[in-house]
Amino acid sequence: MVMMAEKATEQAKGCGTNDWKKILRLLATLSLPTVAEEVLATLLQYVDTAMVGQLGEQATAAVSVTTTINWLIGSLAGALGVAVLAMISRAYGAGEEERMRALSSQVMLVALVSGTILTVLALVLSPYIPVWMGAEKAVQGEASAYFFIISMPLLFRTGSTLFASAIRATQNTMLPMFISLFCNVLNAGLNYVLIYAAGLGVRGAAIASAISYTLSGTLMFIAYRKNRYLRWRMRELHVDGAILREGAALSLPVLGTSLVSCLGYVFFAGLVSGMGTTVFAAHSIAVTAETIFYIPGYGLRTATSALVGASLGEQNREKFERVAALSVALTVGMMVFSGFVLFAVAKPLMCVFSSSGRVVELGARMLRLVAFSEPFFGLMIVLEGIFYGLGRTRYAFFVESASMWGIRIFFTFLCVKLWRLDLQAVWLCMIADNVAKALLFVAPVLIKKEFFTCTTDYSN
Predict the structure, then answer these.
(1) pTM of the predicted model as reported, rounded to 2 decimal places
(2) Which residues of 368-385 are buried (b: 16+ CB within 10 A; e: fewer)?
(3) Could you report the per-residue pLDDT of 425-441, keeping only the tens digit for each?
C-alpha cells in the first residue's frame, strides 16, 4: 500500500503541464481515493446508525443528540487541517523541501497541544452537553456516557486529521484512504460484537468508535513520519513563531467559520430536539442518510485545495484556473446525479436506519425535499475549497456567518418558536441556507474576476 501511494505521489509531482486532459487525469488520481475514503466512511457510519437504530428511538436520540458537538470538535481540528494543507501544498508546489519539514514539525506540536486541550474540555463537559442540547431526561444519561467514551481518544482523532492533511498536501491521497478504510471496517465489526453480542448497546457503539479513533491516529502518525517530504529530526521539534503566525492567519478565519457553523448547527439541533423524540430522530437520521450524497464533494474539494495550493507555489495561474474550472464542473455534475438518486431511494434508505414507521415516513419526506438542492450544496463545497487553497479564508467566514445565522437560524427560530410550523419548514430553512452560500461564493467570480488570482498574502 505504501509503495502504491508513493508511486501516485511521484506521478502527481511530475505533472507540471497545463494541458486540460492531464490536469483532469491528475485531479481524478488525487480525488478518487479521497472521495472513496469519504464514501466508505459514510457507508460505515450508516452501519453504525442502523445498528443503534434497531435498539429504538431513545438509543438513536442518545447517539444523535451530541452529533453536532462532535462536528464542532472535528471542525476545530479540520480548521487547523486547512492551514496545514494550504501551507504544505504551496511549499510542495514550489519544491521547498526544507520548509516542508519545518512545517511538518509544527504540525506535530499543534496536534499535541490542541488534541490535549480538546480532550480535557470534552471529558469535563460531557455530563452537561445533553442537557444543554435539550435532550429528554430519559436520554440524557446514555447520551452523556456515549459522548464521554468517544471523547477519550480525542488526541488521536485530532492527530489523525492533521497528519492526514499533511500527507494529502504532498499529493498522496491513497495512504490516508487505506488507513481510514481499515479503521472504519474495524469499527463496524466491533459495533456488531459490542452492541449485540456483548449486549452493551449504545455504550458498545461508543467503545467501538473509541478503539477505531485510537488506531486511526496511530497509523496516520506512522504514515506521516514515513513520508519523505515530512520527516523532521527531534532537534527540529521546537516552536517556530513565524510558521505558527502564518498558520494562524490562515486557520483562525477557518476556525471562526467552523465555530460559527457548528454553533449554528448546535442551536439548530436544539430547536429541532424540542419538537419531540420522534421528530428529532427522523431529522437526525435523515441528516445522516443525506451525507453520502454530498460527501464525495468534500473528497473532491480536498484534492482541489491541494492542487490549487501547489499551483500557487508554482506561480502557475493557467494551471490554477483550469483546476478550478474542472473541479467546479465535476462537483456540480456529480451532485446533480446524486440528487436524482437521493430522491428515488429516500424511503428505502430511511428503512435501513429505523424500524419506526413514523420516523421513516417523516425522514423520507425531508430527503426528497433536500434532493433538489444538492447541486447548490456541491457548488458551495468546491468553491470553498478553492478559496481555502488560495489562502482566502476570511471571505468563507463572512459567507458562513451571514448565511447560517441570518437565514438558517433566524428563520428556523421563527418557524419553530413563533409560527409553530413542522419539520418541513425547518428543512426549507436549511435548504435556503445552502443555496445562499453557493450564490455568495459565486458572487466574487461574477463581480470581480481577478479575485481568483495567485497570491502569497494569506491575510486577504
Answers:
(1) 0.79
(2) ebbbebbbbbbbbbbbbb
(3) 999 999 999 999 999 99
Tens digit of each residue's pLDDT (9 = 90 or more) over 287-337 = 888 988 888 888 888 889 989 888 888 888 888 888 989 999 999 999 999
Distance CA 164, CA 175 (A): 9
Residue 15 in this model has a pLDDT that exceeds 60: no
Residue whose C-alpha cell is 434532493: 371
Domain boundaries of the chain, sorted by first residue: 16-451
Note the pLDDT of residue 61.
77
Angle at 355 between CA 349 and CA 357, to 5 degrees: 85
Phi–psi pair at 310, nearest 5 degrees:
-65, -40
Report the alpha-carbon distance of residue 8 to residue 10 in Å, rounded.
5
Q: Give the whole-angstrom CA distance, residue 353 versus residue 52.
A: 8
Place of cell 459567507: 399
For every residue of 100-155, DSSP letters joined together read HHHHHHHHHHHHHHHHHHHHHHHHHHTTTHHHHTT--HHHHHHHHHHHHHHHTTHH
